[in-house]
Amino acid sequence: MTYLLISWFFTLPLIIDKKLNFWNAMRLSFKMVNKHWFQCFAVFFVCGLIGILGVLLCCIGVTITMSVFYGAMAYAYIEIFKG
């Protein structure tokens, strides 16, 4: 389950950015993320730990940790899908 979640995470950004249809975006996301799967998993894992820490800090830190998560995912998208 986690494998597919991470592999298909960039489907929506690909639909928006590259104007692909749904199935082609899923295939491209799966193909490109599989080349960098462990790095993507590490980013998700670290962002998840930071998110848990934000929840433990009386939910105030969630607003900060969500912005860190989306910033990290945007950077990963740019690095994986250059060009």
Distance between the termini: 29 Å
pLDDT averaged over residues: 90
The succession of helices and strands, N to C, reads HHHHH
Q: In percent, how helical is the residue content?
A: over 70%
Q: Radius of gyration over alpha carbons?
A: 14 Å
Largest sheet: none
Gross morphology: elongated
List low-confidence stretches: none
What is the number of E strands? 0
DSSP summary: helix tally: 5
Question: What share of residues are in beta strands?
Answer: under 5%
**What is the multimeric organization of the chains shown?**
single chain
The SS-based structural class is: mainly alpha
Architecture overview:
The chain is mainly α and 83 residues long. The protein is 81% helix and 0% strand. The longest helix is centred in the middle third of the chain and has 20 residues, at 37-56. The model has no long low-confidence stretch (mean pLDDT 90).
Structure summary:
81% of the residues lie in helices and 0% in strands. The protein has helices spanning 2-7, 11-18, 22-35, 37-56, 62-80.
What brief labels describe this structure?
0% strand; mainly alpha; 83 residues; single chain; elongated
Task: Please give the structural blueprint.
Layout: H1 2-7, H2 11-18, H3 22-35, H4 37-56, H5 62-80
